[in-house]
Amino acid sequence: MKKKKMRQKHNKKRNTAFIFEVLIRELTKSIVAEDNKKKKIIISLVRENFKSDSFLAQDLDLYKGILETTNVDRHVAEKLIFESRMQHCVLDGERLFIEQTQLINKINKLLSKDVFTNFVPNYRDIATIYQIFNSETKTKQRILKESQLIERMIQSPSTENDLEALDNLTLKTFIHKFNEKYDNELISEQKELLTKFISSFADDGAELKVFLNEEIGRLKVFLSEAINLSDIRQDKAMVHKTKDVLALLNECSDRLIDSKMIQDILKIQKLVKEINT
Asked: Which domain holds residue 44?
């Protein structure tokens, strides 16, 4: 008697959104550990395999379209899921499978199989989308899964701030290591900068660049005015230090945004906070 083939409910390594998320979390861990070699490998893998004309990028966009949608009416949510499923159906499944296989092999070879054990906070939603995209999912099960997603999509967005949304051990470890190294507790501006920096690798740093432009401008204005304060003006050492910091900020526009630059800005933010209290 021929054995009935068991259908696998969720194959993590064939879930494009899951692969992307574990890579981003492995990238965060490499930043925490100051492992520049690994960081460069991961950034290269993400840029090479998720470029706009790749099937992986097209597949990821379909996942994101659902994952990032909140506070819409039920009709819109239903239509978005339906259209996303239809678009996924016309994707070249064979080419997508090949690209996934190539990326999985590179991860195993250049990084480690342990990458796939990284914790992904929205794993349940990612797995649910995988199942509604999977043509082997039975109709009843698919409809139930779609209903779960629709209920999430019609809810108002969470009130969590960016730092809470990135609630994972790697971010906490990064903050802990910075506190140990510089013996201070992070202020809100520093937390926001760290959050933007760690999440920047998912959007090529676009949001981080905007934030840095505004934050550096704020720091320059404050220090330019602070240098005329009586407490600073009467202290030659403080005047000299303030001018050095302003010079450093002026050089930032020509610097590569890396962990060294971020640490410089973090220290300046703390200095400004101390002057302002």
From this structure: 12-153
**Local mean pLDDT, 10-residue blocks, the chain (277 residues):** 47 92 85 82 92 93 92 93 95 95 96 90 90 92 93 71 47 62 71 78 71 91 88 84 90 81 88 83
Within 10 angstroms of residue 47's Cβ, the number of other Cβ atoms is: 11
Q: Do 118 and 222 fall into the same domain?
A: no
Final residue in a domain of this structure, among 132, 153, 174: 153
Residues 148 and 167 in one domain: no
Residue 119 lies in a domain: yes
Tokens 């499944």, residue?
93
Cβ contacts of 209 within 8 Å, gap of 6 or more: 257
